[in-house]
Amino acid sequence: MTGTLPFRAVYHTPDVYDRVLLPHWFDGAEDTGHVRALMHRCYGPAPASGRMRILELGCGTGRVTAALAPYASSLHGVDSGAPMLDVFRTRYPLATTQLADIAAAVECLHADGERFDIVGAFWSLSYPIGDCFEDLTTDGIRPRPDLAAGVADAKVLVRKIVDLLAHGGHLIALFFDSDAPEQRVVTRAWERIAPFPGTGRGFGRETLLAALRDAEEDGLGRLTHFRTGGLSVAPDPPTAIDWFTIVHLKSMPALVDDPDIRAEIEAFVHQHTIDDGRVLLPTGMHLIDFWRTPRTSHLPNDSAGTRGVDP
Q1: Residue 84 DSSP one-character state
Q2: This model's pTM is above 0.90
Q3: N or C: which end of the chain has fewer CB within 10 A?
Q4: What is residue 67's three-state secondary structure?
Q5: What is the pLDDT of residue 2?
Q6: Quick check: 1 pLDDT over 60?
Q7: Binning pLDDT at 50, 70 and 90, where does residue 137 land?
């Protein structure tokens, strides 16, 4: 992709997201395949007519939504990018949509007493959680002075998301692995502007999991979490470089114009280019499932629980 794109164009400029997005493969299946498999384990094959109320936070263009939509009697998509929602509505014309950031949408839905059988958040929760710790603009990063207050705000947000689940409902989230080689390149680039809060770039995921463990300990449900390694696959080096600069670095001038950052990205891409010209970038995925169910559902033959994923 040629030319200079504005900051965060990947989310707010028509067609950019779908053009630069790379497929992610984990054990022979894309990320969408893992979500589809989880839905199958929880609820069986997709029915002829869906019966669930489904909410997707950060729905984007509806790529991962395809794994949820067959189960839906109603589908509500939330995103802060108007071009994203335009595509989403084209793909799912019966869905309702909300142009808002995730935190604002959750606050609104929570205040209205809404409940959903499925809440999906695929690669999207890092943004509202990160916003609790720092402000990101084209001018740079401004950390919040009180990290503990930010953690508390993030945990309140997560608890409100859990509260949106109906009895027996699932929160299903995908989160990037900050320790994977691809993401370590990204981390080093962003750290030229400001250090990441807390324990580093994985702090948002750690905060999410801590909040869900708190919910589990409070008897609100059961948390399942696993991590798997995989590959982001680009057809050629220029596409891989666009993936880094447009998606990971969000076209921020201070980063994409830095010759040292550019050199590290190009070296990493070259290192992972194979003989047929494709670029195989080592990555990783965390799949998080919170099942809203009473503690007694762990017991055999519990009639109060709803069938869920085997622990």
Answers
A1: H
A2: yes
A3: C
A4: helix
A5: 45
A6: no
A7: confident
Q: What is the mean pLDDT of residues 149-170?
A: 98
Tell which wins on pLDDT, 3 or 283: 283
User: In the predicted model, is pLDDT for residue 225 greater than 70?
Assistant: yes
Q: Count Cα atoms within 13 angstroms, Cβ side, for 176.
A: 24
Check pLDDT > 90 for residue 198.
yes
What top-level class would CATH report for the domain 24-230+281-293?
A: alpha beta
Helix and strand numbers, DSSP H then E, in the chain: 12, 11
Classify burial at 137, counting beta carbons within 10 Å of its beta carbon; exposed 0-12, middle 13-18, buried 19 or more. Answer: exposed
**DSSP output for 207-255:** HHHHHHHHHHHTTS-EEEEEEEEEEEEESSHHHHHHIIIIIISTT-HHH
* Cross-strand bridge partners of residue 165: 116
Residue corresponding to tokens 């009639």: 303
Q: Where are the domains positioned within the chain?
A: 24-230+281-293
Q: Which of 293, 101, 283, 125 is nearest to 211 (CA)?
A: 125
Task: Enter the DSSP assignment of 117.
Answer: E
